[in-house]
């Protein structure tokens, strides 16, 4: 088996870190824990459905047809603000790239210097001045960035959120810079809708009790009894939450800052974001500019995939590499020579000696033609026995 690298284009939301879920090709962004969000939908839709089915027909005839009309408009506004809060990017900050994280680490080490072994390194913070007040920027070890002012890391979504207020399980998303105003409008409109339904449920029971009695009315309208119970227990929490956020908006403060006591006035620390005016604070939070998302969820990026291929099917390649055989013949220029085919050092020295220019002495000697070299016969060497016999014959001839 072999693998072939293939490149395909994917949306950036498919590779985003964190614990968020995306739908509709990245247009919808929510937290992974959405069970309570479905409960919120069920309570709102169920209560309003019972109100439209049982109370609205009677109230439209005996009181005013504008009652169900206003209830329908308020219901759609509540649902629009809920979905806008739940399906939007709350202001998630992108994490640092590996190169950026390395540069930040080097910058921190250069600033803090070498920390002796056994000692705790100093906290990673930066000081900035906002409206004459020193604000500390904390370093996020998960995202590898210095968080902007008022930003915090959500442990449930595992992302840094700009102007982080809190993580709301009822809407299934974080509440931050980009969806806080919609969250506040959702709680405000839901409070009005709850009060509206609860009030006209009581009016419906009172009007029917005049003719048939209170007990008989409760027996004939079990849906109304259920609505009254749901609205009664919901009213305290929703109205209380709306009042708390109204107080925070008037001070231009977040829930996270209020819980931590960031601007409680201790040590002469004041809120640098407050305009010291309730109207100006409310206008900034609710009527300020709509901030764009910095994630680019639907942008395109390349993703390399390794696709396994079987050995029987040869992998297609646009630039096939030719197979080479081992040879001792000289290779063409710019071609890699195998180690076992390279000439040895002795062969290289002989070749160099043959190529060098002849000396003046060698020019005087006659040279034989290279085409027909004449072999030279060397006489055999005489052995000691033949030398002795030759000396004896020479003596006899002398006598």
UniProtKB/TrEMBL annotation:
It holds the Pfam family DHHC. Its EC number is 2.3.1.225. GO terms for cellular component: endoplasmic reticulum membrane; Golgi membrane. Residues 352-365 have a biased composition (Basic and acidic residues). Its main location: endoplasmic reticulum. One of its GO terms (molecular function) is protein-cysteine S-palmitoyltransferase activity. Residues 366-375 have a biased composition (Low complexity). Keywords: Acyltransferase, Endoplasmic reticulum, Golgi apparatus, Lipoprotein, Membrane, Palmitate, Transferase, Transmembrane, Transmembrane helix. It is found in: Endoplasmic reticulum membrane; Golgi apparatus membrane. Residues 136-260 form the Palmitoyltransferase DHHC domain. It comes from the Eukaryota. It is a multi-pass membrane protein. It catalyses: L-cysteinyl-[protein] + hexadecanoyl-CoA = S-hexadecanoyl-L-cysteinyl-[protein] + CoA. The DHHC domain is required for palmitoyltransferase activity. PANTHER family: PALMITOYLTRANSFERASE ZDHHC9, ZINC FINGER DHHC DOMAIN CONTAINING PROTEIN. This is Palmitoyltransferase.
């Amino acid at each position: 088996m072999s693998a072939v690298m293939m490149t395909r284009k994917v949306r950036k939301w498919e590779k985003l870190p964190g614990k968020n879920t995306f739908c509709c090709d990245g247009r919808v962004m929510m937290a992974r824990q959405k069970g309570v969000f479905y409960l919120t939908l069920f309570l709102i839709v169920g209560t309003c459905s019972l109100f439209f089915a049982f109370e609205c027909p009677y109230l439209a005839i005996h009181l005013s047809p504008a009652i169900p009309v206003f209830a329908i408009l308020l219901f759609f506004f509540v649902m629009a603000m809920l979905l806008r809060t739940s399906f939007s990017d709350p202001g998630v900050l992108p994490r640092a790239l590996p190169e950026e994280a390395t540069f930040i680490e080097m910058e921190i080490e250069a600033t803090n210097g070498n920390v002796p072994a056994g000692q705790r390194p100093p906290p990673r913070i930066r000081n900035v001045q906002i409206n004459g007040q020193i604000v500390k920027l904390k370093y996020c070890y998960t995202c590898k960035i210095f968080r902007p002012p008022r930003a915090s890391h959500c442990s449930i979504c595992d992302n840094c959120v700009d102007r982080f207020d809190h993580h709301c399980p009822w809407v299934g998303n974080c509440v931050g810079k980009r969806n806080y105003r919609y969250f506040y409008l959702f709680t405000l409109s839901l409070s009005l809708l709850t009060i509206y339904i609860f009030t006209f449920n009581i009016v419906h029971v009172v009007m029917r009790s005049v003719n048939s009695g209170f007990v008989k009315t409760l027996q004939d309208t079990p849906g109304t009894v259920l609505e009254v119970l749901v609205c009664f227990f919901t009213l305290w929490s929703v109205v209380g939450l709306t009042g708390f956020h109204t107080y925070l908006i008037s001070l231009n403060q977040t829930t996270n800052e209020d819980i931590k006591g960031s601007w409680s006035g201790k040590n002469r620390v004041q809120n640098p974001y407050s305009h010291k005016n309730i109207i100006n604070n409310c206008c900034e939070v609710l009527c300020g500019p709509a901030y764009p998302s910095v994630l680019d969820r639907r942008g395109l990026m390349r993703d390399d995939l390794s696709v396994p291929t079987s050995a029987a099917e040869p992998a297609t390649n646009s630039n096939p590499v030719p197979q080479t055989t081992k040879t001792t013949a000289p290779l063409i220029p710019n071609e890699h020579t195998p180690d076992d085919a390279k000439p040895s050092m002795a062969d290289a020295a002989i070749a160099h000696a043959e190529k060098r220019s002849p000396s003046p002495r060698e020019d005087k000697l006659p040279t034989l033609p290279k085409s027909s070299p004449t072999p030279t016969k060397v006489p055999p060497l005489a052995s000691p026995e033949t030398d002795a016999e030759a000396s004896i014959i020479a003596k006899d001839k002398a006598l």
